[in-house]
UniProtKB/TrEMBL annotation:
Protein name: MFS transporter
Lineage summary: Bacteria, Pseudomonadati, Pseudomonadota, Alphaproteobacteria, Hyphomicrobiales
Keyword tags: Membrane, Transmembrane, Transmembrane helix, Transport
Gene3D superfamilies: MFS general substrate transporter like domains
Gene Ontology, cellular component aspect: membrane
Length: 412
């Protein structure tokens, strides 16, 4: 305890900028693991002769992110003890230590022990998903409405930057310094990224009432604003994400070289995503999350229909399809910053981690369903029809979003 606290002086609270910086570090750390798992490790395994079916088994590690709502009430109950200080930092610290231990274990195991690696990375995914519950709940409670856009910008930008570290820098280190060193370096990076949050000061958080109901899923689903929030997520995923699975294959079939595709998906995608996230944070603060989300959906429809026109008329010039792909990344980042900034307002301060986790899991499940559908019909219908249909769905979603936002706001 400091001398000021011992003397009864009020403890200095973190500024919104400090809170956002701490959140950004944790979100980056979470995405480092995703980058290693879904971009770095597949490349290493393929280089070592692993089959595509073996590499595909890594998809099992995404399960904790789709179903983390199942244990979110227990995380929130621990994080928010009634009448006592919150334990957000303890959750992040414990989860971070587990993830770092898994990365050290992966470094010692080596890339040849695929079964052991999958076990370690699944445990790491479970830990990072648990940390995400606590981190999101803390963000909802701490950031005022005018700063929530920046909080979600930190989440989206952190995801892009963390993926670049785990999927890019990791491979460079493997290539030049070896697998073990690369894994140990990722563990050190995780410690550095989480330190600002774990060691930082609290923001202005309202205390949880001593008689508040224990966090649970039924309490979340009883609230109309949560149910409308789930509807908004579904509408947004249908309009914005269902075409994503087609873009990568379309770039290949349009004749772009692997170098071009690497630049677009790597440096270009990260830059566009971070730019979109920062733009989204500023626009949400100025115009509000709902308005920006609706406009972004309209722009997403235009970009998707642009892909349809490119496919239908054979407009496969490298600069044309690259511009569409990068514009898609910018618009998508702006849209999801805006959407989740608005969804923060629908989460109860008594169990923000549970409510917000439900929104994210609905996003993940709807995305996977759409990607499976687009993949199944892609060969039969062709790119022009698939992009055209998903673009039309985005147009319809644009018109449905405004009344859906109004109904959700009325339920508050």
């Amino acid at each position: 305890m400091s001398a000021a606290e011992a003397a009864g002086a009020p403890r200095r609270l973190a500024s919104p900028a400090e809170v956002v910086a701490g959140l950004a570090g944790v979100y980056m750390a979470q995405s480092v693991i995703g980058g290693v798992t879904f971009q770095g490790l597949p490349a290493v395994l393929r280089q070592d002769g692993a089959s595509l079916s073996e590499i595909g088994m890594l998809l099992v590690t995404v399960a904790p992110w789709s179903f983390k709502f199942l244990w979110s009430p227990w995380v929130e109950s621990y994080r928010l003890p009634a009448g006592r200080p919150h334990r957000s930092r303890q959750v992040v610290l414990i989860g971070g230590v587990v993830v770092m231990a898994m990365m050290v274990g992966a470094g010692l195991a080596g890339p040849g022990a695929l079964g052991l690696l999958m076990t370690l990375l699944t445990i790491a995914a479970f830990a990072t998903a648990t940390v995400d519950i606590a981190c999101d709940g803390y963000a909802v409670e701490t950031l005022s409405e005018r700063h929530r856009g920046w909080g979600n910008a930190a989440q989206v930008a952190g995801a892009y930057a963390g993926t670049a570290i785990g999927g890019g820098l990791f491979l460079v280190l493997v290539d030049h310094l070896g697998w073990a060193f690369a894994c140990f370096a990722m563990a050190a990076a995780l410690a550095a990224l989480c330190a600002l949050f774990v060691l930082g000061r609290d923001g202005p958080r309202p205390p949880r009432a001593a008689d508040a109901e224990r966090p649970n899923l039924r309490a979340a689903l009883r609230r109309r604003e949560v149910r409308y929030g789930l509807l908004l997520v579904a509408l947004y995923v249908v309009g914005q994400k269902w075409a994503m699975v087609l873009i990568g294959p379309y770039l290949v079939d349009a004749g772009l070289s692997l170098t071009w595709i690497g630049v677009i998906n790597g440096f270009g995608g990260m830059g566009a995503g971070v730019l979109g996230a920062l733009m989204g944070g500023g626009l949400v603060r100025r115009f509000g999350g709902g308005r920006v989300a609706i406009v972004s959906m309209g722009l997403q429809a235009a970009v998707t229909l642009g892909f349809a026109v490119s496919a239908a008329y054979g407009l496969h010039g490298a600069w044309i399809v690259a511009a569409l792909a990068l514009l898609n990344a910018v618009v998508m980042a702006v849209g999801f910053v805006a959407l989740y900034a608005r969804l923060m307002g629908y989460a109860s301060l008594d169990q923000a981690g549970v409510d917000f986790t439900l929104f994210q899991c609905a996003d993940a499940i709807a995305s996977v369903a759409g990607w499976l559908g687009a993949s199944a019909f892609g060969d039969a219908l062709g790119y022009a029809w698939c992009f055209g249909l998903t673009g039309a769905v985005a147009v319809a979603a644009t018109f449905v979003l405004a009344p859906a936002f109004r109904r959700a706001d009325a339920a508050l």
